[in-house]
Design brief:
Blueprint lengths: L7 E4 L1 H7 L7 H13 L4 E6 L12 H8 L6 E6 L2 H10 L3 E7 L2 H8 L3 H15 L6 E7 L12 H13 L4 E6 L6 H14 L4 E6 L6 H11 L3 E4 L19 H10 L8 H14 L8
Parallel strand pairs: 1-2, 1-8, 2-3, 3-4, 4-5, 5-6, 6-7, 7-8
Helix pairs in contact: 2-3, 2-11, 7-8, 8-9, 10-11
The chain binds zinc ion (ZN).
Length: 292
């Protein structure tokens, strides 16, 4: 028998899922959620962002959350960092895997991190240099609004490729192409993922889709068919972006895992256990409508 195809599913619920909620999930609730998700077989998870608590109050307790989960084994825990200060805070907390993010759309980036994309690339250079003094650390880049922007609508493929090139030149080997608002469709997904993989075969690309127009799984499948093997999703379909008006939830992890498992593509994750976690989500987020 030929070896089974495998995909990596990166859970982003504790970060992307929670960041847009007006309700604060307490520290114990976050730690429990992360531990339960890890027990489902998830091998990589974004657990929060080192951003100003004024911008996103949900992450004001990120240090305490990390202290409660650092003993988890067999899972890569990542945190987002927007700048050098965020990076230093993240390293102090004990987290070793970072995600730097910026938007390929100038206006969205200005709204989100108050920088132009070019300024973000300069910040990434500084961060990468700082990381070179910290062994055992790793950084990837999440490119936002790749499949459409609420302010600039369509983003040009050549602009996306130019930013990936800049990121690759800094020495980052992993890039996630994010559909921050859910404007992507399978044809666009194929065009952009193929262009990126062909031009940068040395880069590991992942994708991150939102389900605003119900196309999350269709986009996931198209990306898989194009050759992508790393997918971000959020338990219960939680998610949004505080600076992307109208963005709704991420593709639900349980839906994505169900699809791949049923296609005999190995995820290593139990759908039944994920469904049990969605019940816990209902307990801690009684007033939030979940895609479950
Ligand atoms: Zn997102």
């Amino acid at each position: 028998m030929p070896p089974k195809e495998r995909v990596k599913i990166v859970e982003v619920g504790p970060r992307d899922g929670l960041q847009n909620l007006s309700v604060h999930v307490d520290t114990r609730g976050k730690i429990s959620l992360i531990k339960q998700l890890a027990a489902c077989g998830i091998r990589e998870m974004q657990i929060g962002s080192f951003v100003s608590p004024k911008a996103i109050p949900q992450f004001k307790d990120i240090r305490e959350v990390i202290a409660g989960i650092l003993d988890l084994k067999g899972i890569t825990l990542t945190a987002m960092v927007p700048n050098l200060q965020g990076l230093r805070d993240a390293l102090k907390s004990g987290i070793r895997n970072l995600v730097f993010f910026f938007s390929v759309s100038r206006l969205h980036n200005l709204h989100n991190v108050k920088q132009t994309p070019e300024e973000s690339i300069e910040s990434l250079k500084i961060i990468k240099r700082e990381l070179s003094f910290n062994p055992d650390t790793d950084i990837s880049v999440a490119l936002a609004t790749v499949f459409g922007c609420p302010f600039e609508l369509q983003v040009k493929v050549e602009d996306i490729l130019r930013y990936v090139e800049a990121v690759a030149a800094i020495g980052v080997g992993r890039v996630t192409l994010c559909d921050t608002v859910g404007f992507g469709n399978p044809k666009l997904v194929e065009q952009i993922t193929r262009a990126c993989m062909e031009k940068f075969p040395e880069i590991h690309f992942g994708v991150h889709f939102h389900n605003t127009r119900g196309l999350g799984l269709a986009n996931t499948l198209k990306a898989y068919e194009t050759g992508i093997r790393s997918f971000e999703s959020s338990i219960g379909g939680l998610g949004g972006c505080p600076f992307a008006p109208g963005a709704s939830g991420n593709v639900a992890t349980e839906d994505m895992v169900f699809m791949f498992n049923e296609m005999a593509v190995e995820t290593g994750i139990s759908v039944q256990k994920l469904l049990d976690v969605t019940l816990y989500l209902q307990d801690i987020l009684p007033d939030v409508s979940l895609n479950i």
